[in-house]
Amino acid sequence: MLAHIKEDASGDCSLRLFTSAVSYVNMGQSTSAQSREQHRLPPVQSIDQFQDRVRQLLRRNCLSRQEVTRFRSVFNKFSSASEASPTWNESDLVKFLGVSLPDELKPALEAAGPLLYRCMIRVGSFPYQTQPVSALTADVAMVAVTVLLRRHESDASTISGIGSGDEEEEVRRAEWLRRILFQSMATRDSSATSHSTSRGAADDEDLMRAHKFVSSHNKWRDWERNPKVAHSGPPVIPVSELPSSRSQDLSGSIAMPELEALVKLLLSCQLYPTEDGPEILVREGKELDAGVASIVAALHEPNETSGVTWESFNRAFSESPTIMSGFTRLFAPLVVEDQVSYQHVDSEIKAKAARLLRDAVSASRWRVFRREGVLPFPSRPSSQLSFGRKAGSHTRMCPSCTLRTATSILQH
Fold first, then answer.
1. Side-chain half-sphere CA neighbours of 36 within 13 A
2. Neighbours of 135 (CB within 10 A)
3. Global model pTM greater than 0.85
4. Which of 19, 123, 276, 403 could hold 280 in an S-S bridge, CB 3.0 to 4.6 Å?
5. Per-residue model confidence as pLDDT tens digits over 336-345
6. Cα(214)–Cα(49) distance, integer angstroms
C-alpha cells in the first residue's frame, strides 16, 4: 500500500511538472508571437496609410531619434493650438522662424509668411505636394524640413530617385528640388484647373518614387529571435490604386512680393558655411537690397502680370546653386544639435525657450551643418564661393562679395 501511495504521489508530481513545463513553453511561444507581432509592419492599403509610411520612413532614415525628439519638443512648444495633436498655423511658423533672425529681417519674414507656410505644408505632403494635407502637424513639418535641408539625400533609396555621385546627378537633384519647391509655392485657380482622367508615368513620377521608397523598406526583423533574417511586410497598395501625384502639374504662379521677401531672407542666410549669421549681410543694407533687386529682375517677365511662372522660376534659380541653401539657416532652430536640451525647452515658457534656441543657434557656429548628410555645400569652384579675408583656418567671405557673387551667377 505504501509503495502504491508513493507511486501515485510520484505520478501526481510528474503530472504537475509536465503541466508546468507545457505552460512555460506556451508562455514562451506566446511571448515570442507577441514579439513578432510588435515587429511586424502595419498594412499599407490606403492613401492615408501610404503617406503615414512615407513620413515614418523619412523620420527613421533621415533623422536621428534625438533629432525627432527635439523636433517634436520644439514644435509642441511653439504651437498655439490646444488640441492633443498640436499643429502650426502661419503665425506660429513666422514667430518660430523669427527666433533666430535679426529684427531688420522681420518685415521680410512677415511678407514671406504665406509662401513659407504654403511651402511647408505642401512639401510635407510629398508625393502629393499639389494635393496637400489640411494641417501642418509635426510629422508633416518633419518631411518638409527633411526635404528643404536635403537630408533625404542621405538615404540610399532616396525619395527623389536620384543617387549621390557625379556632377550630373547633382544637377538632376537640384532640378527635382526646384520643381518640388515651385509646386509647393505656387498658387492655382482650382476652378480653372482641370486634370485628365488618363495618367502616364510622367504624371506619377513622384508617386512611383515614393512607392519604390516604401517598397524597398517594406521589411521587418524579429530582433529577439533571429535578427539576421529579414521578413517581407504586407503587400503595399499598387500605384494604380493610389491617386496620381500630378508631378507634371506646373500651373499657377508665385506672387512676386512674397517671393521677393523670401529671396531677401535666403540671400541674407548665405554665409552659414563661413560661420557667420544673417546679421552680417543685413548690415550691408544697400548691397543686400541691390542683390535682391537683381534677382527679382531675373525673375521678372514683361508679359507676366499674375506672378512668377514655372518658366521664369526655373530659369532664374537653375543658375543659382546657393540661394536655396539659405533654408538651412532659416530652419536651424529645428535641427540644431547638442547646444540645447529639449528637456529645457519643454520646461520653460515660450519666451525663455525662444531665447535658449536663439543662443543655441548662435553658439553652434554652424557645426551642425558640417555633419555629413545634413546639406552638401554648393558644388561651385572655390573661387566663386569663398574669397576675402582669412579668419583662422577658415576662409571668410566679404559680405559685399558674397552678394555680388550670388547675383552675378543669376545674371549669366
1. 13
2. 15
3. no
4. 276
5. 655 555 566 6
6. 11
pLDDT digits (tens, 9 = 90+) for 67-113: 898 889 889 888 988 777 899 999 999 999 988 888 889 999 999 99
Phi-psi region of 251 (alpha: psi -120 to 50; beta: other; left: phi over 0): beta
How does pLDDT run across 235-292, given as a tens digit for each residue? 999 999 999 999 999 999 999 999 999 999 998 887 665 556 677 777 767 778 888 8
Count CB neighbours of 152 within 10 A: 22
* Nearest Cα to Cα of residue 333 among 97, 59, 90: 97
**What b/e readout covers 1-17, taking b as 16+ CB neighbours within 10 angstroms?**
eeeeeeeeeeeeeeeee
Task: Kindly list the distances between the CA atom of residue 182 and the CA atoms of 46, 101, 191, 268, 310, in Å, as whole numbers in the listed order.
Answer: 27, 24, 20, 21, 7
The C-alpha cell that represents 153 in the structure block: 539625400
d(CA 390, CA 350): 39
| CA atoms within 13 A of residue 322's CA, in its CB half-sphere | 26
CA distances from 107 to 101, 142, 351 (A): 11, 26, 20
What residues contact 316, with CB distance under 8 A and at least 6 apart? 295, 298, 299, 410
DSSP 70-120: HHHHHHHHT----SSS-EE-HHHHHHHHGGGS-GGGHHHHHHHHHHHHHHH
The helix/strand/coil state of 189 is coil
Give the bridge partners for 308, in sequence order. 254
